Amino acid sequence: MPPRRDVLNLVRNLGANARPSQQRQAVATLLSLCCIAIFTAGAIPLLVQLLKPGPAAELQQDAAGALSALGRNAGNAVTIAAAGAIPLLMQLLGPAAPARLQQNATLALKQLAANADNVVAIAAAGAIPPLVQLLGPGSLSDVKLTVVGLVWRLSRNAENASTIAAAGAIPLLVLLLGHHCCCLGARGADQRSGRFGHTRNQRCHRGHHH
């Protein structure tokens, strides 16, 4: 692991005074380091700030990917949510967003949804309707499969389950069983153990359009 001074310098390059190219390089380098080092250096609040609208969508994409990786740690997931990431990640789910940005944002939310309090917060922020829309035509298969995993985690809350159904998720999920059976079948073991979407089926890389 690099000296703490070097980690702190990378974290400083996440700040608003840094150039977008410096910020992107800092995010990429921090992703290769130990999560504990990033957490103790105070990077999480700065990464959350990079989710805000700006001139470089790639920076939002990188920040969401970094938060997704950090969110695998239960403590980090709490810290990320407390830093205000949930509503910012929601803003990245719109139909005009690039597919890679949608993928990273939904994956970050999925990691946060491993925490019961975050499940409530994600639903309360109004995330369910836009997530259900991503299950429909026009989204890439990888995005849809990540959303399936996130919706599954959200549905473990009874009130959320009703909201998901009311938003029209059931017929879209049934369609996915028909049109994406190759993807879902490849992930059957993950689904049964409660881990959706952690493996990639290259045959389903391209989205289906109706």
Structural overview:
With 210 residues, the protein is mainly alpha-helical. Helices cover 66% and strands 0% of the residues. It contains 15 helices and no strands. It starts with a helix and ends in an 18-residue tail after the last helix. Residues 184-210 have low confidence and may be disordered.
**SS elements, strand count:** 0
Poorly predicted segments: 184-210
Instruction: Classify the beta-strand content into a percent band.
Output: under 5%
Computed over alpha carbons, the radius of gyration is: 17 Å
The overall pLDDT, averaged over residues, is 80
Number of helices: 15
Q: What characterizes the major β-sheet?
A: none
Q: Which term fits the overall shape?
A: globular
Derived structural class: mainly alpha
H/E series, N to C? HHHHHHHHHHHHHHH
What's the topology here?
Layout: H1 4-12, H2 20-31, H3 35-40, H4 43-49, H5 57-70, H6 74-82, H7 85-90, H8 99-112, H9 116-124, H10 128-133, H11 141-155, H12 158-166, H13 169-179, H14 181-186, H15 188-192
Helix pairs in contact: 2-5, 5-8, 8-11
